[in-house]
Design brief:
By secondary structure, the protein is α+β, with helices and mostly antiparallel strands. The protein has one domain (about 5-65). It is about 60% helix and about 15% strand. It has a two-stranded antiparallel ribbon.
Length: about 70
């Protein structure tokens, strides 16, 4: 990663950061992956009943067709 640049006010207080788009995209990909892990952990800790994804898609599609 590159060294970030900062946008500051006239007192030198950092307001924003400027990153190369490549770094920004990498950070966003990593955040999405962390969110997926968090959701997975949450689902595994849940006491709710689960079902295979294919069955869930079929149920969703059936509800859409009824509308």
């Amino acid at each position: 990663m590159h060294t970030p640049q900062y946008i500051t006010d006239n007192k030198g207080k950092k307001l924003s950061v400027v990153l190369p788009i490549k770094d920004y995209r990498k950070i966003m990909e990593e955040l999405e992956e962390l969110e997926d892990i968090r959701l997975y952990d949450e689902a595994m800790a849940s006491k709710e009943r689960s079902m295979p994804i294919e069955k869930a898609f079929k149920l969703i599609e059936a509800k859409r067709k009824k509308k």
